[in-house]
């Protein structure tokens, strides 16, 4: 469980998150809000990519400020732009990178690479240059690179924003099928219809915290 205790976040004199307290336990949680409302900043707090200026973020009792490394083992992060996440030139190398860092054995790296490529229909792309993948394939590779590290929770920051409809559907199906808990920031309301909980941000505060069935119409009205 992720426990957010009276968290505020400022950059210099600008406050972007204000006094947020939440317990995140549900399997699928959406983060909604206008541009600049603080979604990305909030998402980045959840695995210690950003640290709160005030308050605490606890992941199963681990404080992101003190236990960043252990927190990142539990909470994986998928960026909006997979180009920010894919660091190696060849698909297989990119998948292996994170696992090598965690000292997975060669056999295990091989097994997990095979498994994840098969899952996303990318077995033929094992030796393919990552920069030549389509946008959807890149995002699936970025998600795969996080999954092979076996996090318990995956935080995603607008993972479909750069994708066309077909690839958005592919990534949506991939998200749907994940066993892990997912916390997803998005502007795509269809993506989160079947989620368990939706948090709507406005000017750094959570102004709606409800089921998507209730939160989506309230958010639409707020944006009208
Ligand atoms: N590193 C930073 N330094 C200064 N200000 C920042 C930084 N990162 C974000 N901000 C500011 O914090 C506010 C919230 O940004 P954030 O990216 O969290 O919003 P968002 O809801 O994710 O927006 P979008 O939907 O456009 O991605 C914005 O006003 C942004 O300019």
Spatial order of the strands in the main sheet?
Answer: 6-7-8-3-9-10
Number of strands: 10
- CATH class wording: Alpha Beta
CATH superfamily: P-loop containing nucleotide triphosphate hydrolases
- The number of domains is 1
Number of contiguous helices: 7
Low-confidence stretches: none
How is the biggest beta sheet arranged? 6 strands, mixed
Radius of gyration: 18 Å
CATH topology-level name: Rossmann fold
Structural class: alpha/beta
Give the N-terminus to C-terminus distance in angstroms.
Answer: 34 Å
> Could you tell me the mean pLDDT?
94
Heterogens? adenosine-5'-triphosphate
Query: What is the N-to-C succession of helices and strands?
Result: EEEHEEHEHHHEHEEEH
What share of the residues lie within helices? 25-40%
Beta-strand fraction estimate: 25-35%
Query: What's the CATH architecture name?
Result: 3-Layer(aba) Sandwich
Family: Belongs to the ABC transporter superfamily.
InterPro entries: AAA+_ATPase, ABC_transporter-like_ATP-bd, ABC_transporter-like_CS, ABC_transpr_CbiO/EcfA_su, ECF_ABC_transporter_ATP-bd, P-loop_NTPase
Domain ABC transporter: 2-224
Pfam family, one: ABC_tran
Describe the structure.
- This protein has 224 residues and is α/β, with parallel strands linked by helices.
- 34% of the residues lie in helices and 27% in strands.
- The chain has one domain: 3-Layer(aba) Sandwich (Rossmann fold), CATH 3.40.50.300.
- It is built from seven helices and ten strands.
- The protein has a six-stranded mixed β-sheet with strand order 6-7-8-3-9-10, sandwiched between helices. Strands 2-1-4-5 form a four-stranded antiparallel β-sheet, with helices on one face.
- The mean pLDDT is 94.
- Bound molecules: adenosine-5'-triphosphate (ATP).
- Adenosine-5'-triphosphate is lined by residues 11, 14, 16, 33, 35-41.
- Adenosine-5'-triphosphate (ATP) binds next to strand 2 and helix 1.
- GO terms for molecular function: ATP binding; ATP hydrolysis activity; ATPase-coupled transmembrane transporter activity.
């Amino acid at each position: 469980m992720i426990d957010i205790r009276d968290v505020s976040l400022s950059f210099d004199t600008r406050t972007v998150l204000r006094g947020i307290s939440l317990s995140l336990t549900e399997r699928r949680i959406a983060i909604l809000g206008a541009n600049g409302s603080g979604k990305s900043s909030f998402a980045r707090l959840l695995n210690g990519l950003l640290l709160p200026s005030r308050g605490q973020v606890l992941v199963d009792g681990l404080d992101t400020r003190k236990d960043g490394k252990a927190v990142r083992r539990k909470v994986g992060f998928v960026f909006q732009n997979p180009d920010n996440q894919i660091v190696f030139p060849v698909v297989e190398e990119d998948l292996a990178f994170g696992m090598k860092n965690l000292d997975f054995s060669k056999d295990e790296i091989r097994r997990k690479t095979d498994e994840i490529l098969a899952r996303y229909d990318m077995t033929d792309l094992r030796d393919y240059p990552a920069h030549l993948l389509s946008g959807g394939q890149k995002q699936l590779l970025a998600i795969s690179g996080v999954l092979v590290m076996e996090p318990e929770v995956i935080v995603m920051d607008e993972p479909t924003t750069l994708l066309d409809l077909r690839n958005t559907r592919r990534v949506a199906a991939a998200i749907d099928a994940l066993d892990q808990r997912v916390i997803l920031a998005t502007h795509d309301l269809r993506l989160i219809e079947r989620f368990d909980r939706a948090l709507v941000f406005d000017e750094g505060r959570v102004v709606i915290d409800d089921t998507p069935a209730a939160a989506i119409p309230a958010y639409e009205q707020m944006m009208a």
